[in-house]
Amino acid sequence: MASKRVSPSKTEADPPVSASPASSPPREALLRQTLGELAAMGGGEVAYMRKFRAADVREMFPQTAQLHPLVEVYALFAADGTPLMLADAREAILSSAWQNDLTMIALH
Known about the structure:
Elements: H1 27-40, E1 46-53, H2 54-57, E2 72-78, E3 83-87, H3 90-99, E4 103-104
Parallel strand pairs: 1-4
Antiparallel strand pairs: 1-2, 2-3
């Protein structure tokens, strides 16, 4: 005797298995939203640090002295991306952030 397979019936109330690409926001919009949220977060209270080669720093800090392009420097930025400080030591950046009551966040 052959058994008959019964498939579960779908109703209109069942959610779709996957969202169509048109219904989800584009990746760029999500990235802008995330960056906007970071910029608005902490208004003057949150900062982050990045390490650079001296060759890449001149456009953010045009007043910097001419350094060998391979020298590593650290920069402190406000949450909205505004450059705040440039130093040759990570500890100097952390000390400045602490003295100015800034909360440091990690970016990956």
